[in-house]
Amino acid sequence: MAVLLSACGGGAEQNADPNAEAATALHEAQPLNVRDATLVAESSESGTYSELVTVRYSEEVRASTELDKPECMDAANQWGGLEGVRDAPASVAAYEWSGGAVTHMLVRLDEETAAEAVSTEPPESCDEYTATHEDGTTSDYRVRDLEDVPHIGDASRAFTVEVESAGETRHMVSLMYRNGELVGSTSVVGNGGLEDYERMLVEFSEAAVERQRQMLG
After folding, report:
1. Closest residue by Cα to residue 215 from 10, 17, 24
2. What's the pLDDT tens digit per position in 116-151?
3. Is this prediction's pTM over 0.85?
4. Which helix (H) or strand (E) holds 185?
5. Cα–Cα distance between 178 and 4 in angstroms, integer?
6. At 66, is the secondary structure helix, strand, or coil?
7. Cβ atoms within 10 Å, residue 193
């Protein structure tokens, strides 16, 4: 799943980050827990979007990965390349959950960029593609929209990604939403049942928006 959702790491060098204060406020607005999903502080970080360990690791993985459809690189997060996103304050929070793992990213943008980010979708050809990794192994990806997920925030879209690699199948369900100038992205990963993953996806995203209203106004 590394091409789509990379491991989080703590951000140690944030003292000189011009976005440190704004990013810290976003981090404090992350949910502490939703159901039995509990925040893992040491695997979470905040700072300028492009400087986050999570983002930099994803970019390193992408650089070493070859796709049969190059236009599908980082299909789930193509909005991250928009002008205005890379220099924005951001927070990534990782959560332990009995059914898998949950990750929530929060980025503060201007409303125009936020609206563009949520409306950015991968090309139609990216419903299926194959990635060849640096070690020669391959992963097959299948992407589809989740049509029955309720509306979250001012605008939202949700999708599921099935990844088959080395005989193992894993799923990621993801929801991206806009809450004013905030863009949030919730991802649930594991090899459990999709129905429970979708419930967690919606419950977590709704809780995240409510927490933002309480903490950020």
Report:
1. 24
2. 999 988 888 989 999 999 899 999 999 999 988 999
3. yes
4. strand 182-190
5. 20
6. strand
7. 11
